Amino acid sequence: MNYVLACLTTIQSGTDVLIIKARGNAISKAVNVAQITLNRFVSDLSVKNITIGTEQIQTDDSTTPIDVSSIEIQLGKT
Fold this sequence. Notes:
This protein has helices at residues 2-12, 27-41; strands spanning 17-23, 45-57, 66-77. The protein is an alpha+beta fold.
């Protein structure tokens, strides 16, 4: 609910476009935040774009990079 509150605060400050980004296990939380913001609180927002991808992250103890899924959800006023 804290992320939803942060989204609402950003929208109330006059922003026309809100971008929610997440990687790995946090992707489901980002989708939930976007849906709660759209369906429960702000009726004049819609999903403008969704970008999915894979990022390679280098860890300290590994010589090969690890692939991590990522998502970017762009919400905008209609």
